[in-house]
Amino acid sequence: MDRQQEFVLRTVEERDVRFVRLWFTDVLGSLKSVAVAPAELEAAFTEGIGFDGSTIEGLARVVESDMLVRPDPSTFAVLPWRGGPDGRQGTARMFCDVLTPDGLPAPQDPRHVLKRTLAKAAEAGFSFYTHPEIEFYLFEKDLDAQGIPVPVDQAGYFDHVPAGVAHDFRREAITMLEALGISVEYSHHENGPGQNEIDLRYADALSTADNIMTFRTVVKEVAFAQGHQASFMPRPLAGLPGSGMHTHLSLFSGEANAFHADGAEYQLSTTGRSFIAGLLRHAREITAVTNQWVNSYKRLWGGSEAPSYVCWGHNNRSALVRVPMYKPSKGQSTRVEYRALDPATNPYLAFAVLLAAGLKGVEEGWELPAGAEDDVWELTDSERRSLGIEPLPGSLSEAISVMEGSELVADTLGEGVFDFFLRNKRAEWDDYRREITPFERRRYLPLL
Protein backbone atom coordinates (compact mmCIF):
# COMPACT_ATOMS: atom_id res chain seq x y z
CA MET A 1 0.00 0.00 0.00
CA ASP A 2 1.18 3.54 -0.64
CA ARG A 3 1.63 6.17 2.07
CA GLN A 4 -1.68 7.91 1.40
CA GLN A 5 -3.60 4.67 1.75
CA GLU A 6 -1.76 3.89 4.98
CA PHE A 7 -2.60 7.38 6.28
CA VAL A 8 -6.31 6.81 5.57
CA LEU A 9 -6.35 3.44 7.36
CA ARG A 10 -4.50 4.87 10.35
CA THR A 11 -6.79 7.92 10.59
CA VAL A 12 -9.92 5.78 10.34
CA GLU A 13 -8.67 3.69 13.25
CA GLU A 14 -7.45 6.60 15.39
CA ARG A 15 -10.65 8.63 14.95
CA ASP A 16 -12.93 5.63 15.29
CA VAL A 17 -14.57 6.28 11.92
CA ARG A 18 -17.48 3.86 11.55
CA PHE A 19 -18.43 4.39 7.90
CA VAL A 20 -16.56 5.56 4.82
CA ARG A 21 -18.64 6.92 1.98
CA LEU A 22 -17.25 6.37 -1.49
CA TRP A 23 -18.40 9.25 -3.71
CA PHE A 24 -18.57 9.44 -7.50
CA THR A 25 -20.79 11.21 -10.02
CA ASP A 26 -23.02 10.24 -12.88
CA VAL A 27 -22.83 11.96 -16.26
CA LEU A 28 -25.29 14.65 -15.14
CA GLY A 29 -23.10 15.56 -12.17
CA SER A 30 -25.34 14.07 -9.49
CA LEU A 31 -23.42 12.77 -6.51
CA LYS A 32 -23.58 9.01 -5.89
CA SER A 33 -22.46 7.26 -2.72
CA VAL A 34 -21.87 3.83 -1.26
CA ALA A 35 -20.84 3.39 2.39
CA VAL A 36 -18.33 0.72 3.38
CA ALA A 37 -17.14 -0.47 6.77
CA PRO A 38 -13.51 0.32 7.72
CA ALA A 39 -12.66 -3.38 7.47
CA GLU A 40 -13.39 -3.24 3.72
CA LEU A 41 -11.15 -0.27 2.96
CA GLU A 42 -7.96 -2.20 2.19
CA ALA A 43 -9.80 -4.33 -0.35
CA ALA A 44 -11.45 -1.20 -1.79
CA PHE A 45 -8.00 0.32 -2.40
CA THR A 46 -6.59 -2.78 -4.08
CA GLU A 47 -9.60 -4.35 -5.81
CA GLY A 48 -12.37 -1.75 -5.81
CA ILE A 49 -16.02 -2.15 -4.79
CA GLY A 50 -18.42 -3.63 -7.33
CA PHE A 51 -21.75 -2.07 -8.32
CA ASP A 52 -24.34 -2.14 -11.11
CA GLY A 53 -23.22 0.61 -13.49
CA SER A 54 -26.32 0.32 -15.68
CA THR A 55 -28.41 1.92 -12.92
CA ILE A 56 -26.28 5.09 -12.95
CA GLU A 57 -27.08 7.76 -15.55
CA GLY A 58 -24.74 7.39 -18.52
CA LEU A 59 -22.15 5.05 -17.01
CA ALA A 60 -22.93 1.72 -18.68
CA ARG A 61 -25.46 -0.30 -20.64
CA VAL A 62 -27.30 -3.25 -19.12
CA VAL A 63 -25.10 -5.67 -21.10
CA GLU A 64 -21.95 -4.19 -19.51
CA SER A 65 -23.34 -3.36 -16.07
CA ASP A 66 -20.59 -4.73 -13.80
CA MET A 67 -18.33 -1.88 -12.71
CA LEU A 68 -16.01 -0.96 -9.83
CA VAL A 69 -15.33 2.14 -7.77
CA ARG A 70 -11.84 2.58 -6.36
CA PRO A 71 -11.30 5.35 -3.77
CA ASP A 72 -8.70 8.04 -4.25
CA PRO A 73 -6.97 8.27 -0.83
CA SER A 74 -5.81 11.85 -1.49
CA THR A 75 -9.47 12.96 -1.20
CA PHE A 76 -10.07 11.46 2.25
CA ALA A 77 -11.89 13.71 4.74
CA VAL A 78 -14.04 13.21 7.80
CA LEU A 79 -17.51 14.70 7.35
CA PRO A 80 -18.04 17.39 10.02
CA TRP A 81 -21.82 16.95 10.15
CA ARG A 82 -21.59 13.30 11.17
CA GLY A 83 -20.36 11.65 14.37
CA GLY A 84 -20.08 12.67 18.00
CA PRO A 85 -19.05 16.08 19.39
CA ASP A 86 -15.48 14.87 19.90
CA GLY A 87 -15.17 14.00 16.20
CA ARG A 88 -15.17 10.25 16.88
CA GLN A 89 -17.56 7.54 15.68
CA GLY A 90 -18.04 9.56 12.55
CA THR A 91 -18.27 9.18 8.79
CA ALA A 92 -15.58 9.95 6.23
CA ARG A 93 -15.65 10.26 2.47
CA MET A 94 -13.36 9.69 -0.49
CA PHE A 95 -13.94 10.42 -4.15
CA CYS A 96 -13.62 7.41 -6.43
CA ASP A 97 -12.59 6.55 -9.94
CA VAL A 98 -14.99 4.27 -11.80
CA LEU A 99 -13.37 1.21 -13.37
CA THR A 100 -14.37 -1.59 -15.70
CA PRO A 101 -14.15 -5.18 -14.33
CA ASP A 102 -10.64 -5.55 -15.77
CA GLY A 103 -9.46 -2.55 -13.73
CA LEU A 104 -9.28 -0.01 -16.56
CA PRO A 105 -10.78 3.50 -16.24
CA ALA A 106 -14.41 3.56 -17.35
CA PRO A 107 -14.59 5.88 -20.40
CA GLN A 108 -17.92 7.33 -19.23
CA ASP A 109 -16.68 8.30 -15.76
CA PRO A 110 -16.78 12.13 -15.66
CA ARG A 111 -13.75 12.24 -13.35
CA HIS A 112 -11.80 10.17 -15.88
CA VAL A 113 -12.92 12.46 -18.73
CA LEU A 114 -11.32 15.39 -16.90
CA LYS A 115 -8.21 13.39 -15.97
CA ARG A 116 -7.78 12.39 -19.60
CA THR A 117 -7.97 16.02 -20.75
CA LEU A 118 -5.58 17.15 -18.00
CA ALA A 119 -3.13 14.50 -19.20
CA LYS A 120 -3.22 16.03 -22.69
CA ALA A 121 -2.47 19.43 -21.18
CA ALA A 122 0.43 17.92 -19.23
CA GLU A 123 1.85 16.48 -22.46
CA ALA A 124 1.88 20.04 -23.81
CA GLY A 125 3.67 21.21 -20.65
CA PHE A 126 0.71 22.80 -18.87
CA SER A 127 -1.23 22.36 -15.65
CA PHE A 128 -4.75 23.80 -15.43
CA TYR A 129 -6.04 25.82 -12.47
CA THR A 130 -9.58 27.00 -11.78
CA HIS A 131 -11.31 29.26 -9.26
CA PRO A 132 -15.14 29.19 -9.14
CA GLU A 133 -17.51 31.85 -7.81
CA ILE A 134 -20.56 29.80 -6.85
CA GLU A 135 -23.98 31.44 -6.58
CA PHE A 136 -27.08 29.81 -5.14
CA TYR A 137 -30.44 30.65 -3.60
CA LEU A 138 -31.50 29.99 -0.03
CA PHE A 139 -35.25 29.41 0.36
CA GLU A 140 -37.62 28.82 3.22
CA LYS A 141 -38.41 25.15 3.74
CA ASP A 142 -42.08 25.51 2.68
CA LEU A 143 -43.44 26.90 -0.59
CA ASP A 144 -45.96 29.74 -0.64
CA ALA A 145 -49.68 29.29 -1.38
CA GLN A 146 -48.96 29.29 -5.14
CA GLY A 147 -46.29 26.59 -4.78
CA ILE A 148 -43.41 29.04 -5.37
CA PRO A 149 -40.19 28.99 -3.30
CA VAL A 150 -39.85 31.82 -0.77
CA PRO A 151 -36.41 33.49 -0.39
CA VAL A 152 -35.13 33.69 3.19
CA ASP A 153 -34.61 37.48 2.91
CA GLN A 154 -35.16 40.48 0.65
CA ALA A 155 -31.54 41.67 0.68
CA GLY A 156 -29.42 42.58 -2.34
CA TYR A 157 -25.81 42.72 -3.52
CA PHE A 158 -23.28 42.97 -0.65
CA ASP A 159 -26.08 43.89 1.77
CA HIS A 160 -25.25 43.50 5.44
CA VAL A 161 -28.45 42.33 7.12
CA PRO A 162 -28.39 42.59 10.93
CA ALA A 163 -29.19 39.19 12.45
CA GLY A 164 -29.68 37.94 8.89
CA VAL A 165 -30.26 34.27 8.14
CA ALA A 166 -27.71 34.35 5.32
CA HIS A 167 -24.87 35.50 7.64
CA ASP A 168 -25.34 32.52 9.94
CA PHE A 169 -25.78 30.21 7.00
CA ARG A 170 -22.60 31.28 5.20
CA ARG A 171 -20.56 31.19 8.41
CA GLU A 172 -21.64 27.62 9.16
CA ALA A 173 -21.14 26.46 5.56
CA ILE A 174 -17.65 27.98 5.36
CA THR A 175 -16.69 26.46 8.70
CA MET A 176 -17.67 23.03 7.39
CA LEU A 177 -15.86 23.54 4.08
CA GLU A 178 -12.66 24.52 5.86
CA ALA A 179 -13.00 21.49 8.14
CA LEU A 180 -12.99 19.43 4.95
CA GLY A 181 -9.82 21.14 3.73
CA ILE A 182 -11.59 23.38 1.19
CA SER A 183 -10.33 26.97 1.31
CA VAL A 184 -12.79 29.83 0.80
CA GLU A 185 -11.74 33.27 -0.43
CA TYR A 186 -14.91 35.35 -0.21
CA SER A 187 -18.58 35.14 0.63
CA HIS A 188 -21.38 37.68 0.38
CA HIS A 189 -25.03 38.25 -0.41
CA GLU A 190 -25.74 38.38 -4.14
CA ASN A 191 -28.21 40.49 -6.14
CA GLY A 192 -31.32 38.38 -5.68
CA PRO A 193 -33.33 38.04 -2.47
CA GLY A 194 -32.00 34.99 -0.64
CA GLN A 195 -29.16 34.68 -3.17
CA ASN A 196 -25.62 34.08 -1.91
CA GLU A 197 -22.14 33.64 -3.34
CA ILE A 198 -19.18 31.72 -1.93
CA ASP A 199 -15.89 31.75 -3.84
CA LEU A 200 -13.47 28.84 -3.55
CA ARG A 201 -9.71 29.38 -3.65
CA TYR A 202 -7.69 28.53 -6.75
CA ALA A 203 -6.77 24.86 -7.11
CA ASP A 204 -5.91 22.42 -9.86
CA ALA A 205 -8.99 21.61 -11.93
CA LEU A 206 -9.48 18.06 -10.62
CA SER A 207 -9.36 19.21 -7.00
CA THR A 208 -11.72 22.08 -7.81
CA ALA A 209 -14.23 19.74 -9.42
CA ASP A 210 -14.11 17.49 -6.34
CA ASN A 211 -14.49 20.59 -4.16
CA ILE A 212 -17.55 21.78 -6.09
CA MET A 213 -19.25 18.43 -5.58
CA THR A 214 -18.44 18.64 -1.86
CA PHE A 215 -19.54 22.29 -1.76
CA ARG A 216 -23.00 21.50 -3.12
CA THR A 217 -23.41 18.74 -0.54
CA VAL A 218 -22.26 20.95 2.35
CA VAL A 219 -24.57 23.82 1.35
CA LYS A 220 -27.57 21.49 1.17
CA GLU A 221 -26.68 19.83 4.49
CA VAL A 222 -26.35 23.19 6.29
CA ALA A 223 -29.55 24.50 4.72
CA PHE A 224 -31.45 21.40 5.81
CA ALA A 225 -30.04 21.58 9.36
CA GLN A 226 -31.13 25.23 9.63
CA GLY A 227 -34.63 24.55 8.32
CA HIS A 228 -34.08 25.98 4.84
CA GLN A 229 -33.64 24.71 1.28
CA ALA A 230 -30.70 25.55 -0.97
CA SER A 231 -31.04 25.55 -4.77
CA PHE A 232 -28.32 25.54 -7.42
CA MET A 233 -30.93 25.83 -10.15
CA PRO A 234 -29.61 28.37 -12.72
CA ARG A 235 -32.76 30.49 -12.53
CA PRO A 236 -35.25 29.22 -9.94
CA LEU A 237 -37.56 32.25 -9.99
CA ALA A 238 -38.80 34.31 -12.92
CA GLY A 239 -38.02 38.00 -12.66
CA LEU A 240 -35.05 37.51 -10.33
CA PRO A 241 -31.33 37.16 -11.17
CA GLY A 242 -30.06 33.75 -12.16
CA SER A 243 -27.25 31.93 -10.40
CA GLY A 244 -23.96 31.58 -12.23
CA MET A 245 -20.62 29.99 -11.50
CA HIS A 246 -18.16 32.41 -13.05
CA THR A 247 -14.89 30.51 -13.20
CA HIS A 248 -11.37 31.90 -13.46
CA LEU A 249 -8.99 29.82 -15.57
CA SER A 250 -5.22 29.77 -15.98
CA LEU A 251 -2.49 27.56 -17.38
CA PHE A 252 0.82 27.14 -15.60
CA SER A 253 4.07 25.87 -17.06
CA GLY A 254 5.92 24.58 -14.04
CA GLU A 255 5.82 27.41 -11.49
CA ALA A 256 5.24 30.11 -14.14
CA ASN A 257 1.85 31.47 -15.13
CA ALA A 258 1.66 30.80 -18.87
CA PHE A 259 -0.99 33.52 -19.25
CA HIS A 260 1.29 36.28 -17.96
CA ALA A 261 3.60 38.50 -20.03
CA ASP A 262 5.18 41.65 -18.61
CA GLY A 263 4.40 44.72 -20.69
CA ALA A 264 1.68 43.04 -22.78
CA GLU A 265 -1.82 44.45 -22.92
CA TYR A 266 -3.59 43.41 -19.71
CA GLN A 267 -0.34 41.47 -18.99
CA LEU A 268 -1.86 38.71 -21.14
CA SER A 269 0.62 36.48 -22.97
CA THR A 270 0.30 35.06 -26.47
CA THR A 271 -0.64 31.73 -24.86
CA GLY A 272 -3.37 33.43 -22.87
CA ARG A 273 -4.73 35.24 -25.93
CA SER A 274 -4.78 32.03 -27.99
CA PHE A 275 -6.49 30.21 -25.11
CA ILE A 276 -9.29 32.81 -25.12
CA ALA A 277 -9.52 32.52 -28.91
CA GLY A 278 -10.08 28.78 -28.49
CA LEU A 279 -12.80 29.37 -25.88
CA LEU A 280 -14.58 31.81 -28.19
CA ARG A 281 -14.33 29.65 -31.31
CA HIS A 282 -15.78 26.61 -29.53
CA ALA A 283 -18.13 28.40 -27.11
CA ARG A 284 -21.33 27.52 -28.93
CA GLU A 285 -20.26 23.87 -29.28
CA ILE A 286 -19.52 23.38 -25.58
CA THR A 287 -22.57 25.21 -24.20
CA ALA A 288 -24.69 22.04 -23.93
CA VAL A 289 -22.07 20.75 -21.48
CA THR A 290 -21.31 23.93 -19.54
CA ASN A 291 -25.04 24.75 -19.37
CA GLN A 292 -26.71 21.35 -19.47
CA TRP A 293 -30.24 22.08 -18.20
CA VAL A 294 -33.29 23.56 -19.88
CA ASN A 295 -33.40 26.09 -17.05
CA SER A 296 -29.80 27.14 -17.82
CA TYR A 297 -31.01 29.13 -20.83
CA LYS A 298 -33.48 31.12 -18.75
CA ARG A 299 -30.41 32.47 -16.98
CA LEU A 300 -28.26 32.99 -20.09
CA TRP A 301 -31.02 34.94 -21.82
CA GLY A 302 -32.52 36.54 -18.74
CA GLY A 303 -30.25 39.59 -18.39
CA SER A 304 -28.70 40.46 -15.00
CA GLU A 305 -25.14 40.33 -16.37
CA ALA A 306 -25.51 36.77 -17.68
CA PRO A 307 -23.50 36.35 -20.90
CA SER A 308 -25.56 35.79 -24.05
CA TYR A 309 -23.03 36.59 -26.77
CA VAL A 310 -19.66 35.14 -27.78
CA CYS A 311 -17.11 37.87 -27.15
CA TRP A 312 -14.39 38.86 -24.72
CA GLY A 313 -13.49 42.05 -22.93
CA HIS A 314 -11.53 43.62 -20.12
CA ASN A 315 -13.65 44.36 -17.06
CA ASN A 316 -16.74 43.95 -19.25
CA ARG A 317 -19.27 41.87 -17.35
CA SER A 318 -21.56 41.53 -20.36
CA ALA A 319 -18.88 39.53 -22.22
CA LEU A 320 -18.63 35.74 -22.21
CA VAL A 321 -14.91 35.87 -21.40
CA ARG A 322 -13.43 38.57 -19.23
CA VAL A 323 -9.81 39.44 -18.44
CA PRO A 324 -9.87 40.80 -14.89
CA MET A 325 -7.09 42.96 -13.50
CA TYR A 326 -7.52 43.00 -9.75
CA LYS A 327 -3.78 42.78 -9.01
CA PRO A 328 -1.88 44.22 -11.98
CA SER A 329 1.45 44.06 -10.13
CA LYS A 330 1.22 40.30 -9.54
CA GLY A 331 1.93 38.25 -12.63
CA GLN A 332 0.87 34.98 -11.03
CA SER A 333 -2.70 36.32 -10.79
CA THR A 334 -3.18 36.80 -14.55
CA ARG A 335 -6.16 34.70 -15.62
CA VAL A 336 -9.32 34.72 -17.69
CA GLU A 337 -12.88 34.44 -16.44
CA TYR A 338 -15.47 32.30 -18.24
CA ARG A 339 -18.90 33.62 -17.28
CA ALA A 340 -21.37 31.18 -18.85
CA LEU A 341 -20.99 28.29 -16.37
CA ASP A 342 -23.84 27.76 -13.94
CA PRO A 343 -23.70 25.98 -10.55
CA ALA A 344 -25.78 23.00 -11.70
CA THR A 345 -23.22 21.86 -14.27
CA ASN A 346 -21.16 18.69 -14.03
CA PRO A 347 -17.84 20.35 -13.09
CA TYR A 348 -15.68 17.48 -14.38
CA LEU A 349 -17.16 17.61 -17.87
CA ALA A 350 -17.39 21.41 -17.92
CA PHE A 351 -13.72 21.87 -17.02
CA ALA A 352 -12.75 19.21 -19.56
CA VAL A 353 -14.42 20.97 -22.51
CA LEU A 354 -13.19 24.41 -21.42
CA LEU A 355 -9.62 23.13 -21.23
CA ALA A 356 -9.91 21.29 -24.53
CA ALA A 357 -11.26 24.41 -26.30
CA GLY A 358 -8.55 26.66 -24.87
CA LEU A 359 -5.76 24.19 -25.64
CA LYS A 360 -6.97 23.93 -29.22
CA GLY A 361 -6.51 27.67 -29.57
CA VAL A 362 -2.99 27.44 -28.10
CA GLU A 363 -2.03 24.48 -30.31
CA GLU A 364 -3.28 26.21 -33.46
CA GLY A 365 -1.91 29.63 -32.49
CA TRP A 366 -5.27 31.30 -33.10
CA GLU A 367 -5.37 35.08 -33.08
CA LEU A 368 -7.65 36.77 -30.58
CA PRO A 369 -10.25 39.02 -32.20
CA ALA A 370 -10.83 42.55 -30.96
CA GLY A 371 -12.40 42.79 -27.54
CA ALA A 372 -15.83 44.22 -26.80
CA GLU A 373 -15.71 47.05 -24.28
CA ASP A 374 -19.33 48.23 -24.71
CA ASP A 375 -22.29 46.63 -22.98
CA VAL A 376 -23.07 43.90 -25.52
CA TRP A 377 -26.69 43.78 -24.39
CA GLU A 378 -27.12 47.43 -25.37
CA LEU A 379 -25.88 46.93 -28.94
CA THR A 380 -28.32 46.36 -31.77
CA ASP A 381 -28.31 43.09 -33.72
CA SER A 382 -26.71 44.83 -36.68
CA GLU A 383 -24.00 46.35 -34.47
CA ARG A 384 -23.21 42.94 -32.99
CA ARG A 385 -23.08 41.39 -36.47
CA SER A 386 -20.73 44.11 -37.68
CA LEU A 387 -18.40 43.25 -34.81
CA GLY A 388 -18.59 39.51 -35.56
CA ILE A 389 -20.32 38.77 -32.25
CA GLU A 390 -22.44 35.61 -32.35
CA PRO A 391 -25.14 34.70 -29.83
CA LEU A 392 -24.80 31.72 -27.55
CA PRO A 393 -27.48 29.04 -28.15
CA GLY A 394 -30.88 30.26 -27.02
CA SER A 395 -32.11 26.91 -25.74
CA LEU A 396 -30.85 23.48 -24.77
CA SER A 397 -32.29 22.12 -28.01
CA GLU A 398 -30.21 24.55 -30.06
CA ALA A 399 -27.12 23.88 -27.94
CA ILE A 400 -27.42 20.14 -28.54
CA SER A 401 -27.81 20.68 -32.30
CA VAL A 402 -24.65 22.78 -32.37
CA MET A 403 -22.75 20.27 -30.21
CA GLU A 404 -23.75 17.36 -32.44
CA GLY A 405 -21.32 18.45 -35.15
CA SER A 406 -18.40 19.20 -32.82
CA GLU A 407 -15.35 16.97 -33.18
CA LEU A 408 -13.74 18.69 -30.21
CA VAL A 409 -16.61 17.90 -27.82
CA ALA A 410 -16.94 14.33 -29.12
CA ASP A 411 -13.20 13.69 -28.69
CA THR A 412 -13.12 15.28 -25.23
CA LEU A 413 -16.18 13.57 -23.77
CA GLY A 414 -15.67 10.24 -25.47
CA GLU A 415 -18.26 8.33 -27.46
CA GLY A 416 -20.36 7.11 -24.54
CA VAL A 417 -20.79 10.46 -22.80
CA PHE A 418 -21.24 12.33 -26.07
CA ASP A 419 -24.01 9.97 -27.20
CA PHE A 420 -25.65 10.19 -23.77
CA PHE A 421 -25.86 13.97 -24.06
CA LEU A 422 -27.34 13.84 -27.54
CA ARG A 423 -29.90 11.18 -26.65
CA ASN A 424 -31.01 12.13 -23.14
CA LYS A 425 -30.87 15.89 -23.39
CA ARG A 426 -33.09 15.80 -26.47
CA ALA A 427 -35.64 13.74 -24.52
CA GLU A 428 -35.43 16.21 -21.64
CA TRP A 429 -36.12 19.11 -24.00
CA ASP A 430 -39.16 17.31 -25.41
CA ASP A 431 -40.50 16.72 -21.88
CA TYR A 432 -39.94 20.36 -21.04
CA ARG A 433 -41.86 21.60 -24.09
CA ARG A 434 -44.84 19.51 -23.04
CA GLU A 435 -44.96 20.74 -19.44
CA ILE A 436 -42.77 23.84 -19.04
CA THR A 437 -43.06 25.35 -15.55
CA PRO A 438 -44.55 22.45 -13.54
CA PHE A 439 -41.99 20.04 -14.97
CA GLU A 440 -39.22 22.51 -14.31
CA ARG A 441 -40.12 22.88 -10.64
CA ARG A 442 -40.58 19.16 -10.02
CA ARG A 443 -37.47 18.14 -11.90
CA TYR A 444 -34.92 20.75 -10.90
CA LEU A 445 -35.65 22.33 -7.55
CA PRO A 446 -35.36 19.15 -5.43
CA LEU A 447 -32.31 17.91 -7.34
CA LEU A 448 -30.29 21.05 -7.85
Can you offer a commentary on this structure?
With 448 residues, this protein is α+β, with helices and mostly antiparallel strands. The chain has helices at residues 3-14, 41-46, 110-123, 165-179, 205-225, 270-290, 296-300, 347-364, 381-386, 396-404, 407-413, 415-435, 437-444; strands spanning 19-25, 31-36, 49-52, 66-71, 77-78, 91-99, 127-140, 184-189, 195-200, 203-204, 228-231, 245-253, 256-257, 309-310, 312-313, 321-322, 336-338, 390-391. The protein folds into two domains: 3-106, Glutamine synthetase, N-terminal domain (Ubiquitin-like (UB roll)); 117-133 and 236-444, Glutamine synthetase/guanido kinase, catalytic domain (Creatine Kinase, Chain A, domain 2). Helices cover 36% and strands 20% of the residues. The strands form three sheets. Strands 7, 8, 9, 10, 11, 12, 13, 15, 16 and 17 form a ten-stranded mixed sheet that branches. Strands 1, 2, 3, 4, 5 and 6 form a six-stranded mixed sheet that branches. Strands 14-18 form a two-stranded antiparallel sheet. Helix 4 (165-179) crosses helix 5 and helix 6 packs across helix 10 (396-404). The chain is globular, with a radius of gyration of 22 Å. It starts with a helix and ends with a helix.
